[in-house]
Amino acid sequence: MARTLKLRIWRGDDKTGGLQDVTVEANHGEVVLDIIHRVQATQMGDLAVRWNCKAGKCGSCSMEINGKPRLACMTQVAAYPEDETITITPLRAFPVIKDLVTDVSFNFKKAMEIPSLQMPEGLKPGEPRMQQVDVERSQEFRKCIECFLCQNTCHVIRDHEENKKSFAGPRFFIRIAELDMHPLDMLRNRKKTAQEEHGLGLCNITKCCTEVCPEHIKITDNAIIPMKERVADEKYDPIRWLGSKIRRREEVL
Amino acid sequence: MQPRLGRLLLMATGVFSQGRAKISERTLRTDKWWIQPLITVGVLLSFIVYATWRAFEGAHYYAEPLISPFYSPCLSTTCVEGSSLLGTPFGHIVIFGMVLSPAFIILIFPLGFRMTCYYYRKAYFRSFWMSPPACAVAEPHAKYTGETKAPLIVNNGHRYFFYIGLVFNTLLTIDALLAFKNPQGQWGHMSIGTVVLLLNATFLWGYSASCHSCRHAIGGRLRHFSKHPFRYKAWTVVSRLNQKHQNFAWVSLIWVAFSDFFVRMVSLHPTWNKYFF
Q1: For chain A, percent of residues with pLDDT exceeding 70
Q2: B180, exposed or middle or buried, with CB in 10 Å at 0-12, 13-18, 19+?
Q3: In the prediction, which pLDDT does B13 show?
Q4: Is A90 on the interface with B (CB under 8 A)?
Q5: Is the pLDDT of residue A252 over 50?
Q6: Cβ separation B220–A229 shorter than 8 A
Q7: How much is the pLDDT for B62?
Q8: Pairwise CA distance, residues B13 & A244, whole Å
Q9: CA dist B226 to A99, A112, A223, B38, B232, Å?
Q10: Is B95 helix (H, G, I), strand (E, B) or coil?
């Protein structure tokens, strides 16, 4: 064992709970999820933690480590000084179920509110053809592992529970952007619904979603801001709006 | 802010909402998350104080052939002789018994460009409005409507300020080219002031070219890049610049203030503007 680690782990449920001190041994190269598993195996047999791949690809072990939203499986213990106590809590934007496990069903409800890709009529499976330059923007957004760290850190819902009704969150703004930029998507009201139903206008570009994304997706620069500009084309730019009515270039664009 | 006070301000919403993990602290971050907003406040406030003072001063903005970017184009009849590139369509404007400085006629446009800029939004929302002060640090506001209502809905018109900004960039580039004259009006000379104004114009063009609205106008709004190969190429160039937008934002802001300071000093002490040839 390389070092003795001091931890504070939040334990409780949706009614009550608190931080509990634990001391545990840690090996070289271990990540925080390894340590949580050791605590679970040796000291807190009923500690609840959600995890799966342990490779940063399933997005299950999202939690807050020293107050920062992170994947526990991608957080090296060695990144913290030897004398530092590491505080581990569940995600603070969602209701807690038990210990480090939260109820993230909010995100699945929001996902269902976004219409999927609408292909041109008459196009049969296997027939669509697209060029790489037309789809590469959208491909960045397909890297999303749905860890919901961006949703958790977004202050619009983290700090304002009441906004959850009207705000889809950054994860779903990249989904909307992916579809709106897709060359074969025929649904033409995505910009309008992004603003009026999914709460794009509530985003104030503070870029926390981008900061915490473990896949390094440029959520704000490549999805949210381009969507805000597309919304401005239709809703806040009278010259563009007039031009679109006169020339009807949507299909060409 | 103490946790209890923070909780009171948040009125049991946000991270203190029913059902969420019961944690009394607004944040458990242990790093110095407050440094970045503090520096931002320091730099932006310094700029605001300096620019306001200079705009009110209404003097020492022209030292032939150099003109301060805070006063260019100088459009008022109160402008110093020789400083008005586009004439003087505005007369003496008196507000509250004071003659309006020529700077106030134009500064609203570059100010609007920066206030609605996607990068500066992050900067001022975090550092001035604390919404949020840093990631995963609870903000102190009980309600939040983002950019859906006045006045912040104006941010959606960023592109118009961008277009006006291009006009200003062009005029400031002409100012920089005019700085290749000497004080007697003869071409073919170059001074420290020429370099200062050239850099000012360069940084401002960089700031505009890396702008998110520029990126959108150049090609971002397209659905089929393959049908517009030239716009796609231009979009890739602007996208690369866009990654440095924050850097251009700060450099151009600081340099525009420095350019004004330099012109002011040359106006007071002409020997400051050493000529290379």
Answers
A1: 97
A2: middle
A3: 82
A4: yes
A5: no
A6: yes
A7: 94
A8: 43
A9: 50, 31, 20, 45, 8
A10: strand
Is the CA virtual torsion B39, A201, B118, A150 positive or negative? positive
Cβ-based contacts of A96 with chain B (< 8 Å): 19-21
Per the CB < 8 A criterion, the answer to whether A103 and A94 are in contact is yes
Is pLDDT of A250 > 80?
no
What would the pLDDT profile of A171-196 be if each residue is shown by its tens digit? 999 999 999 999 999 998 999 999 99
CB contact under 8 A, B148 and A211: no
Q: What angle do CA B245, B248, B249 make, to 5 degrees?
A: 85
Q: What is the DSSP letter of A206?
A: -
Query: Does any CB of chain B come closer than 8 Å to the CB of residue A19?
Result: yes
Q: Where are the beta strands (DSSP E) in chain A?
A: 3-12, 17-26, 62-65, 68-71, 86-89, 96-98, 101-102
Helix ranges (DSSP H) in B63-179: 102-106, 108-115, 118-127, 158-178
The token duo for B150 is 């006045």
Which residues touch B98 (CB under 8 Å, ≥6 apart)? none
**What are B15's two structure tokens?**
């991270």
Report B:108-137 residues touching A (Cβ under 8 A): 118, 121-122, 125-126, 131-132, 135-137
Residue A230's SS3 state is helix
Structure-token pair, residue B134: 């840093």
Could you give the domains of chain A? Answer: 3-102 (3.10.20.30), 105-247 (1.10.1060.10)
- Provide the pairing of β-strand A3-12 with A86-89: parallel
Q: Closest Cα partner for B216 from B168, B162, B170, B169?
A: B162
Peptide bond into A238 cis (omega under 30): no
pLDDT digits (tens, 9 = 90+) for A65-94: 999 999 999 999 999 999 999 999 999 999
